[in-house]
User: Fold this.
Amino acid sequence: MELSPSRPTKKEMVTAFRTKEIMAAAHRVMERQGLEAATMEEIAAAAGVAKGTVYLYFQSKDELIQALITRVGEQMLAGIEAVVEGPGAPAEKIRQVASLLLDYLIRERVLFPAYARDLLRGGRGAAKGYWSRLQEMEERFVTLVTRLFAQGIESGQFIPANPRLLTFLLRGMVRAVGYYQMSEGQEKAVQEALPVLLTLLSSGLTRQPQSSAEVATL
Assistant:
């Protein structure tokens, strides 16, 4: 007999609710104050709890930032998986994935510097569990998008190429936009990059139909 899943206890429900509230408050404060300037005191005040309560759930601001990055990554992966598994041609799905990634750059621009820093450090100084989870999410992204590129190549819509390499190239271009937005302080960088990136994907990736003259010479 299959056992029904146990209902969460009151303590577990309170913990989940309080964690969600603190993370939401931290995101608001960091957007207003900046990643470095935001303090645990301000986050606690925004969440309507004592500073000591925040430390019951997160031992440090770095741990809180890592939790926010993890949550964003999980949400982003869920969105990408929905695109990959949904209806539509591979070319259109790639455009949707690119748009989704750039949209996250806009919405989560306050967290991108911490995410980029962690990548450059290769996990040095990061909590082991967090770094392992970040690596798992990175590989999950590569797996999903590689599958999408492979489908496009197999169907003849994309140029013949290594689909995993194409995934790394797409991820690299998106990260480049994030670095530009971060280093140059260009708030409109992502909006400007979207049509450029989509044009590059369409013109450089999509196999162009052969003209009748080209077909006749084959």
In short: The CA atoms of residues 25 and 47 lie 5 Å apart.
